[in-house]
């Protein structure tokens, strides 16, 4: 891997000697040349900011910084944060999104806030997996039944084209409102019945099935010009703790890790269908990295979390498996990380591990968020200048980010569509009859007969003859 400074010098020499002819540039594609040029003009602070994706899930008065008031329209403070600090992207939640028109307008306004000198736009990200993890309005969007249903549908006919079509629908619908990164699909192996956080988000229990369906779904999104994301590396399936609320540990042997959890990633990489982004898992996996680290909050020793492990994120994923795309942390405000590490320390350790993007590194809910973000960027900059983070790691990472944005045309549009036209087009795409037909096909083919003479069919034991059904959402009980 070339040092960025040496690469820039080499290009300068080539251009000087060869007069910038096409043969001289044959070893570099256009996006790489553009990305290198952009990188050469960025300050260290701008590079660090590009490596951060923020959330603006709630917005509060400065006197009530812990409120949970949903943010559905951006304000001058948020515009200023995006414009002044050159952040890499934004993640959206259901709290931000109400319907197709509002969502399209909201994202349009986010992109319009970017400093035009930055050249490239924001990664606009969300989790639109289908099933129980969706962000677009359920009233408007196509509601795919989720990965386990898709796995069951595949087993009924062994037709992997359905997974591609689901990925294409998910991609087309999020793209229609302006999203360019979907944090899906989950390719975790569902191997622990007590796993509350993965469970039906997994395609099933066999690595080869998960690799196949995950790859096809990612390809469908990619063909819709949306960046797909395999998650959660190195594998969250064999856990019984939700990393939103604690730090799970996976006790598989190293052989089991490679046979099960790592296999979907390995297959995707060697067969050439790995997505352009992979998300880390806030888990401990001692057989892959049993080194210890002192927490910055309590100074207690603990097994290295996978998100912060260079051995897992760099040595295994990149050096051993050969992954060339972007890596992003799971949200750094989850208890699996935030319970043990300060915001600054978590980001520094993330970048030391070689992970490209820190997701939700800081909690911004008030007008003071800009100064908080500036402090974080300053602290990381000091760590780089002090030699605690390798500057070449930063440059290589930002180069990957810039190349990916160029690949997916995430740039400032001089003659962008009007917001009214965007809304009309989005409404025509989202929840279309063609998309709903695929949703229905997956649903029908996923129906699986479970026979248990002692329990099924259900029989009422009360005199009124009522059976109570509990569902996560009201519309499921209708």
Quick structural summary:
The protein has 478 residues and is α/β, with parallel strands linked by helices. The protein has 17 helices and ten strands. The protein has two domains: 1-41, no CATH class; 50-446, Glycoside hydrolase, family 3, N-terminal domain (TIM Barrel, Alpha-Beta Barrel), CATH 3.20.20.300.
Describe this entry's structure for a reader.
The chain is of the alpha/beta class. It has 2 domains: 1-41, no CATH class; 50-446, Glycoside hydrolase, family 3, N-terminal domain (TIM Barrel, Alpha-Beta Barrel), CATH 3.20.20. Helices cover 42% and strands 7% of the residues. The chain contains 17 helices and 10 strands. The strands form 3 sheets. Strands 4-3-2-1-10 form a 5-stranded parallel β-sheet. Strand 7 and strand 8 (301-303) form a beta hairpin. It is globular, with a radius of gyration of 23 Å. The model is unreliable at 12-27 (pLDDT under 50).
